[in-house]
Amino acid sequence: MYCHANSTVNGVNQVVLSWIKAWRPAIAFTCVLASLAQTTLAGGVSAYLPLNLEPEMERQIERVLILADEPILKRPFAVALVEDALPQACMVDKPLCTKVKRYLQRYSRDYAVTHASATGAITHNAKGVVVPNEHGLPADSRWELSAQGYVQPNDYLLLSGGAVAYQGHSTSATATTGSRLPPTAAR
């Protein structure tokens, strides 16, 4: 009688059975580890505070993060990070927490205008000079308008946009400043 190594007994392949028997401890260990693992759910997206905060508010937010032992060098700050740091900071400085909580309220809604600004200026002999870090704003511009806002229809989608306009030029979410995509080649 001839017996092949891959023979079946009651329809089960003997090679598969021997493999399962050899790996039984590893399979049991993996099952135990998998049962101990905790499920992690995504917390959704978080808005970020603008990079050009008012100096007083920026100092207050940095103080909250320092009191909660959070890093302050990484910018921009996530709103969720500042909210998580507030309970520890409130134990030390309640007036500071009140001010920061009031500021963060604008980010707790489904939509909001988070920044709006109008600036006027009078200059003398400023032709050709550009103000640093102001999207190419010439120093001789007599006015500047800016606004920023967001819409968050659900926990996993956040749309944010802003616009800057000044004498002779305007930019918005459709004409961004900073990084730009290269123009497409003509076909």
What characteristics describe this protein?
single chain, 187 residues, alpha+beta, 2 domains, 4-stranded antiparallel sheet, 6 strands
Description:
The protein is an alpha+beta fold and about 190 residues long. The chain folds into two domains: about 45-110, no CATH class; about 110-175, no CATH class. The chain has five helices and six strands.
Strand neighbour order, sheet with most strands: 3-4-5-6
SS strand fraction: 15-25%
- Describe the global form: elongated
Average pLDDT for all residues: 79
Radius of gyration: 30 Å
The proportion of residues forming helix, as a percent range, comes to: 25-40%
Uncertain stretches: 173-187
**End-to-end distance, in Å?**
74 Å
Largest sheet data: 4 strands, antiparallel
Order of helices and strands: EEHHHHHEEEE
**Helix-strand category:** alpha+beta
Overall tally of structural domains: 2
Helical stretch tally? 5
By DSSP, the count of extended strands is 6
Short summary:
With 187 residues, the protein is of the alpha+beta class. The chain has helices at residues 14-22, 24-36, 55-67, 79-90, 94-104; strands at 8-9, 12-13, 111-120, 143-154, 157-166, 169-171. The strands form 2 sheets. A 4-stranded antiparallel beta sheet has the order 3-4-5-6, with no helix packed on it. The protein has a two-stranded antiparallel sheet with strand order 1-2.
